[in-house]
């Protein structure tokens, strides 16, 4: 009974792990999409359908304003302007002065792949892919409109770097360097709009602010919007694992103080489209290891202090099948002779939980650990702690395994002791089987009496496997979702713990340790069960060939410690039996 239970649990682990891969792919993998239309190259304006806000359709690029639009003359002729290059210690990005959209972002601290020194490209707009961050002012007097197209801002220069940054103080009194990139738009009726991008050294968040200075004789009205626009191309950050193509969720996400984290597939941007008003909310596009997000900020009127505003969070499809998710502020009224400021924070970079949680409630949950997130979170915190000590994620996994085994040692020791007793009394059970032959009722009675006399629980050997299953699956999610382990080397040939072992050495070692561990367990009396038991290490070895090397490393360490633990317990039980019976312990 015990052996069948163990085999069933081993088989269940195999099936669950396999179904986990399939479910992950179905839920998070990005299926082949419709062929995307060719986008303009990065040195040109991002093409867009810019309807009049009064007649805006849900599929439009620019969101529909909640006030009537002012009818203006058509001025859709494109304006050719050089992109503004901004380089910090973390970013190299480009801003299009026409509209002030961010059209390309390169992450300098993250390489394109483990074999390349090129930076990872987060946003881009070229013939292969369109993924941009747009922002502007719409409404009655907003310069972004369908009839006029995007406004052409004036810029002081076309290249900025941290050398241009100025010292500033944060709210907590810390000194930091802030690089500001201003863009100016002056209208014929005397309204000046200053759009400013503020970059802080060592930080990914970018503050995008608008200052509206109304020197006209009339009231100015408009709304700020910020949105992410992306085509249906595949996730450039997904990992190719041989026969498995492992990818995490690719699509939209949003959150609010009431609903912290919600996912929205690209296919549902229209059918189940987002339409929520929230103060303290956010919208994002999520991919493997990285995220881009807009977090609405504050509105400041005249000399009053800035106050967070309730933004409308929306998603939709554009006319050219682009996926758009963004926010729109309430109507901003700027009386003649006054000024107002409104801002939002833009983030485009790695999913670092410690940074995301400070930006908005729930944004850190874009690091999606699945339904086992409580265990995964604890495992990640443990990995972070050990990494702070040893500076290597591979050794951190080993130390974490030791810690987990120590925590589970008391429970697993009871199970292994019961298994060791089963091993010792195996000859006695075989004798009873031969003695009672076909009398199964008598054999079962005698066997239960033996278990009671020897204080053996035949099902206790299943406990270690049951304890390890959720840890195994949670660690899988940690390795797949934690950008800190992306391309993280261990030693020798293992240069990426989040990818499979290129030489398959670790899976073979895992199979060997699993075989040794099973040899320490009581062997099934039934020949068929014994054969199934022997085949399990081979099945798991083949399956582990395509799992992340870090996960296989964990399993090797876990098996190795289990072998040591079982060996010590087997010897202790055998000695106790020898002392009690005065006989040689069974092999």
From TrEMBL:
Residues 393-571 form the Membrane insertase YidC/Oxa/ALB C-terminal domain. Residues 39-60 are annotated as: Disordered. Residues 50-60 have a biased composition (Polar residues). One of its GO terms (cellular component) is plasma membrane. It is a multi-pass membrane protein. Coiled coil: none annotated. Residues 84-380 form the Membrane insertase YidC N-terminal domain. Keywords: Cell membrane, Chaperone, Membrane, Protein transport, Transmembrane, Transmembrane helix, Transport. One of its GO terms (biological process) is protein transport. GO terms for molecular function: membrane insertase activity. It holds the Pfam family 60KD_IMP. It is found in: Cell inner membrane; Cell membrane. It comes from the Bacteria. The chain crosses the membrane at residues 6-24, 393-412, 456-479, 537-556. Belongs to the OXA1/ALB3/YidC family. Type 1 subfamily. Interacts with the Sec translocase complex via SecD. Specifically interacts with transmembrane segments of nascent integral membrane proteins during membrane integration. PANTHER family: CYTOCHROME C OXIDASE ASSEMBLY PROTEIN COX18, MITOCHONDRIAL, OXA1. Required for the insertion and/or proper folding and/or complex formation of integral membrane proteins into the membrane. Involved in integration of membrane proteins that insert both dependently and independently of the Sec translocase complex, as well as at least some lipoproteins. Aids folding of multispanning membrane proteins. This is Membrane protein insertase YidC. The lineage of its organism: Bacteria, Pseudomonadati, Pseudomonadota, Gammaproteobacteria, Moraxellales.
């Amino acid at each position: 009974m015990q052996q069948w239970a163990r085999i069933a649990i081993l088989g269940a682990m195999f099936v669950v792990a396999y179904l986990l891969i399939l479910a992950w792919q179905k839920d998070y993998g990005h299926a082949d999409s419709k062929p995307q239309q060719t986008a303009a190259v990065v040195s040109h304006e991002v093409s867009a359908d810019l309807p009049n806000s009064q007649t805006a359709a849900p599929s439009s690029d620019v969101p529909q304003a909640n006030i009537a639009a002012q009818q203006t003359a058509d001025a859709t002729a494109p304006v050719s302007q050089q992109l503004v290059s901004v380089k910090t210690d973390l970013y190299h990005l480009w801003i299009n002065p026409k509209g002030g959209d961010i059209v390309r972002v390169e992450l300098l601290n993250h390489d394109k792949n483990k074999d390349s020194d090129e930076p990872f490209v987060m946003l881009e707009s070229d013939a292969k892919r369109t993924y941009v961050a747009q922002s502007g002012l719409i409404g009655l007097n907003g310069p972004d409109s369908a009839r006029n197209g995007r406004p052409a801002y004036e810029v002081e220069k076309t290249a900025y770097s941290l050398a241009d940054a100025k010292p500033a103080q944060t709210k907590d009194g810390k000194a930091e360097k802030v690089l500001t990139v201003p863009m100016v738009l002056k209208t014929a009726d005397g309204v000046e709009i200053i759009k400013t991008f503020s970059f802080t050294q060592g930080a990914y968040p970018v503050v995008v602010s608008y200052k509206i200075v109304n020197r006209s004789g009339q009231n100015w009205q408009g709304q700020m919007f910020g949105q992410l626009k992306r085509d249906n191309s595949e996730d450039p950050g997904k990992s190719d694992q041989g026969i498995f193509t492992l990818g995490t969720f690719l699509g939209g996400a949003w959150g609010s103080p009431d609903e912290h984290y919600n996912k929205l597939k690209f296919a549902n941007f229209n059918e189940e489209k987002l339409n929520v008003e929230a103060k303290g909310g956010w919208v994002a596009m999520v991919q493997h290891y990285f995220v881009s997000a807009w977090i609405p900020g504050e509105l400041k009127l005249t000399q009053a202090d800035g106050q967070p505003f309730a933004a409308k969070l929306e998603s939709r499809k554009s006319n050219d099948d682009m996926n758009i998710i963004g926010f729109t502020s309430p109507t901003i009224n700027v009386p003649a002779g006054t000024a107002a400021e409104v801002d939002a924070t833009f983030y485009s970079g790695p999913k670092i939980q410690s940074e995301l949680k400070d930006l908005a409630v729930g944004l850190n949950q874009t690091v999606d650990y699945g339904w086992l997130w409580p265990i995964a979170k604890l495992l990640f915190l443990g990995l972070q702690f050990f990494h702070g000590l040893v500076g290597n994620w591979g050794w951190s996994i080993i130390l974490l395994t030791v810690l987990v085994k120590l925590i589970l040692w008391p429970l697993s020791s009871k199970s292994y002791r019961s298994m060791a007793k089963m091993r010792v009394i195996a000859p006695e059970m075989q004798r009873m089987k031969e003695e009672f032959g076909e009398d199964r009722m008598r054999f079962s009675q005698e066997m239960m009496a033996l278990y009671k006399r020897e204080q053996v629980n035949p099902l206790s050997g299943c406990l270690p496997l049951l304890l390890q299953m959720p840890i195994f699956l949670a660690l899988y999610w940690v390795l797949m979702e934690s950008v800190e382990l992306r391309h993280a080397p261990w030693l020798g040939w293992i240069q990426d713990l989040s990818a499979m072992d290129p030489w398959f050495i670790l899976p073979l070692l895992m199979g060997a340790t699993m075989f040794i561990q099973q040899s320490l367990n009581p062997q099934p009396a039934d020949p068929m069960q014994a054969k199934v038991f022997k085949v399990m290490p081979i099945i798991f070895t083949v399956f582990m060939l395509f799992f992340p090397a870090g996960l296989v490393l964990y399993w090797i360490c876990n098996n190795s410690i289990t072998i040591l633990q079982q060996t010590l317990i087997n010897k202790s039980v055998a000695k106790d039996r020898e002392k009690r019976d005065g006989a040689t312990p069974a092999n």
